[in-house]
Amino acid sequence: MSAREKILVAMSGGVDSSVAALLLQRQGCDVVGAYMKNWINEENVIGHCPWEQDIVDARAVADQLGIEFHVVNLMRDYRARIVDYLLDGYARGLTPNPDVMCNREIKFGVFRQWGRDHGFTAIATGHYARRVLAKPALTDAPATYSLLEGADKNKDQSYFLALLNQEQLRDARFPIGDLPKPELRRLAHEAGLATAAKKDSQGICFIGEVKMQDFLRTFVPDQPGPIVRATDGAVLGTHRGLHLYTLGQRRGIGIPSNTDFQNYVVVGKRAADRALLVAFDGPDAPGLFCREIRVHHLSWIGAPVSTPAALEGRVRYRDPRVPLEYLPAADGGALVRFATPQRALAAGQVLALYRGEQLLGGGVYL
Ligand SMILES: Nc1ncnc2c1ncn2[C@@H]1O[C@H](COP(=O)(O)OP(=O)(O)OP(=O)(O)O)[C@@H](O)[C@H]1O
């Protein structure tokens, strides 16, 4: 990394991005911090939005480091690119993934553009992921980069970066990607950073601590329908709207099983009569496990995989990588066949594709 690089650090007010800024400064980069204001509690979303405190914390760290700090208002873009995508997805019976979309559209989209417009050569975040040189530039063409999982396998956040492209990665820096979390905390304490002891954030990207269900209740009107047992068609009750449930969900269905050691789980949604399909949880629950999925809207970090290949995939952020067969289809999508059946693959979610610890890209599954 060139010592004269002018880097814009996305500072969320958390410890990870605080240490990202600290490390870049120690490397001799010209560092400026910025908080992205993407969401505020002004649309009557129930819940606690800690954004004001986050700005205070991010600014405190910037002051400690003696770097310039900005609050960048991206609320309009966030509303258009993330909130609308979320609401549209739920309205179509899908389970969207705002965290993955945020990275592509907001952090490495409009925020990156804001950085470029203000003369920054790169955007840094506190993601646990590693960007490595894949191919040095031999001619005038730019070098190519690969994305690897974070060194701390327990904190790895590469999944959230699955839809980035090469150009976005070229401008991205992940200064904490090599660090184990305890070491990062130690560095933060040692440097006396205001966020050193702050607990890790939760909740969906930018909607802060607001729970998804509260968010949806506020923005999507109730659309009740029957709760139907998939195995025999028995109607067990009513629900307030299919968008409030996800495949594989056990909690909050509101129907006691009345059978020892058996719990109902959501196994499907039937659009025709807005039925929520449930069954007893287990390997035999109809529709809960599947071995094959179709993936579309594919996006690649490097060269696309255009022939059948044995790869690995991660179907959710916290899930381990699992072996799969990747079969490109004529329509630009792909068929993915898992070595073992996967539980609760909710349509609209993202499959991240890997070769070992290298993230190749990803797509949305149906
Ligand atoms: N509102 C925001 N403003 C600026 N940067 C942000 C914001 N939200 C997230 N980021 C950036 O994206 C990274 C990953 O976001 P995530 O919400 O997963 O935070 P995190 O892993 O808890 O990290 P941190 O401890 O820095 O909050 C952050 O480290 C930060 O660089």
TrEMBL record:
<protein>
    <recommendedName>
        <fullName>tRNA-specific 2-thiouridylase MnmA</fullName>
        <ecNumber>2.8.1.13</ecNumber>
    </recommendedName>
</protein>
<dbReference type="GO" id="GO:0005737">
    <property type="term" value="C:cytoplasm"/>
</dbReference>
<dbReference type="InterPro" id="IPR014729">
    <property type="entry name" value="Rossmann-like_a/b/a_fold"/>
</dbReference>
<dbReference type="InterPro" id="IPR004506">
    <property type="entry name" value="MnmA-like"/>
</dbReference>
<feature type="site" description="Interaction with tRNA">
    <location>
        <position position="127"/>
    </location>
</feature>
<dbReference type="Pfam" id="PF03054">
    <property type="entry name" value="tRNA_Me_trans"/>
</dbReference>
<feature type="binding site">
    <location>
        <position position="36"/>
    </location>
    <ligand>
        <name>ATP</name>
    </ligand>
</feature>
<keyword id="KW-0694">RNA-binding</keyword>
<dbReference type="GO" id="GO:0005524">
    <property type="term" value="F:ATP binding"/>
</dbReference>
<dbReference type="GO" id="GO:0002143">
    <property type="term" value="P:tRNA wobble position uridine thiolation"/>
</dbReference>
<keyword id="KW-0067">ATP-binding</keyword>
<feature type="region of interest" description="Interaction with target base in tRNA">
    <location>
        <begin position="97"/>
        <end position="99"/>
    </location>
</feature>
<feature type="binding site">
    <location>
        <begin position="10"/>
        <end position="17"/>
    </location>
    <ligand>
        <name>ATP</name>
    </ligand>
</feature>
<comment type="similarity">
    <text>Belongs to the MnmA/TRMU family.</text>
</comment>
<dbReference type="InterPro" id="IPR046885">
    <property type="entry name" value="MnmA-like_C"/>
</dbReference>
<dbReference type="GO" id="GO:0103016">
    <property type="term" value="F:tRNA-uridine 2-sulfurtransferase activity"/>
</dbReference>
<keyword id="KW-0547">Nucleotide-binding</keyword>
<feature type="site" description="Interaction with tRNA">
    <location>
        <position position="349"/>
    </location>
</feature>
<keyword id="KW-1015">Disulfide bond</keyword>
<keyword id="KW-0819">tRNA processing</keyword>
<feature type="domain" description="tRNA-specific 2-thiouridylase MnmA-like C-terminal">
    <location>
        <begin position="291"/>
        <end position="364"/>
    </location>
</feature>
<dbReference type="InterPro" id="IPR023382">
    <property type="entry name" value="MnmA-like_central_sf"/>
</dbReference>
<feature type="region of interest" description="Interaction with tRNA">
    <location>
        <begin position="316"/>
        <end position="317"/>
    </location>
</feature>
<keyword id="KW-0808">Transferase</keyword>
<feature type="domain" description="tRNA-specific 2-thiouridylase MnmA-like central">
    <location>
        <begin position="213"/>
        <end position="278"/>
    </location>
</feature>
<dbReference type="InterPro" id="IPR046884">
    <property type="entry name" value="MnmA-like_central"/>
</dbReference>
<keyword id="KW-0820">tRNA-binding</keyword>
<feature type="active site" description="Cysteine persulfide intermediate">
    <location>
        <position position="205"/>
    </location>
</feature>
<feature type="active site" description="Nucleophile">
    <location>
        <position position="102"/>
    </location>
</feature>
<dbReference type="Pfam" id="PF20259">
    <property type="entry name" value="tRNA_Me_trans_M"/>
</dbReference>
<keyword id="KW-0963">Cytoplasm</keyword>
<feature type="binding site">
    <location>
        <position position="126"/>
    </location>
    <ligand>
        <name>ATP</name>
    </ligand>
</feature>
<comment type="function">
    <text>Catalyzes the 2-thiolation of uridine at the wobble position (U34) of tRNA, leading to the formation of s(2)U34.</text>
</comment>
<dbReference type="Pfam" id="PF20258">
    <property type="entry name" value="tRNA_Me_trans_C"/>
</dbReference>
<dbReference type="GO" id="GO:0000049">
    <property type="term" value="F:tRNA binding"/>
</dbReference>
<feature type="region of interest" description="Interaction with tRNA">
    <location>
        <begin position="155"/>
        <end position="157"/>
    </location>
</feature>
